Amino acid sequence: xxxxxxxxxxxxATALDTPLETMLSLASDxxxxxxxxxxxxxxxxxxxxMTLIRDHSWIVRSAIVSSPKFPPELLTELSKDSxxxxxxxxxxxxxxxxxxxxxxxxxxxxxxxxxxxxxxxCPTSLMEQLLHDDKTVRTGLGENPxxxxxxxxxxxxxxxxxxxxxxxxxxxxxxxxxxxxxSDDIREVREAVAGNKQCPEGVLTALINDLAKxxxxxxxCNSACTIDILNKLNSDYDHxxxxxxxxNPNLPLLxxxxxxxxxxxxxxxxxxxxxxxxxxxxxxxxxxxxxxxxSTPMGKTTRSTTLGDALLRVGLSxxxxxxxxxxxxxxxxQADTTPNMDLSPLSTRPSKMRF
Length: 355
Hints:
Layout: H1 6-14, H2 20-26, H3 32-40, H4 46-52, H5 58-66, H6 75-78, H7 84-91, H8 98-103, H9 110-118, H10 124-130, H11 135-143, H12 149-155, H13 161-168, H14 175-181, H15 187-195, H16 201-205, H17 213-221, H18 227-233, H19 239-247, H20 253-262, H21 266-278, H22 281-289, H23 307-313, H24 317-337
Helix pairs in contact: 1-3, 3-5, 5-7, 7-9, 9-11, 11-13, 13-15, 15-17, 17-19, 19-21, 20-21, 22-24
Protein name: HEAT repeat domain-containing protein
């Protein structure tokens, strides 16, 4: 061991196949980061765990609490640790008893009390008490998955926007609260509403013309957006909004093709082209079956540039070939079942469809 550098010993302390005698030696090394790595090793023997629990370095003790080998029965003891960081680790532990949460509720550090407020096992009575605590604590309360709806409604009216932001970002935020926060004065709060995947269509629609582009960015990326909302956002004056629209899984192929080949922004076109290349053959099969082809005009008249020409112009020859192959395969399948059928590929026949 004496021949190894400190860095080598740090790496060795994390290895799952490090021998017991080596782990014992590393657990008493003067370097606290080596001992920390031993503490975090999932194969750390129980006897070493019990030794490191009382290590003089808070970094090591904190690592022990986070370790899968940490014995939960010692949570109560370490909840009195001199380091507030260790106490935070204890109070964020999934198995932390509710009585420990109650005892530590008056800890002098707001970040410690925040861990109590956001803990799923926090009693409702304690949540009501923490409702009047520091804004850091109230933010944690807003993140608690078991926070009752009546407390969420109170937090949605909190004077500090960080608290309202935490509420707006909850995946289970009640629609009534989202409807309230959609008109919040703070952009970050509305942005959280716009990005909430459980947000009702009516609330999302209200954000289409939001003055803050960041809100519209979040909206355009939200997979809860309907086609109607995306069709309005795909002409947004901010190119970043349109770029986000191209990545939305709900955007139909037609507007995506248009954006990938005709948008005024290079970034939008590149993003759209990247998404088009990620589409599998089954997507294009449905596209061709719906009556579209490489000869479909991209404009409103038959003299407009065709889809095939537009794809080739922007370098999407791979997409062109996929559509061509799908159309040919469908033509062959139809020829096998229909006598005297025109065998020219569907992709090359004049299309009556328009973009």
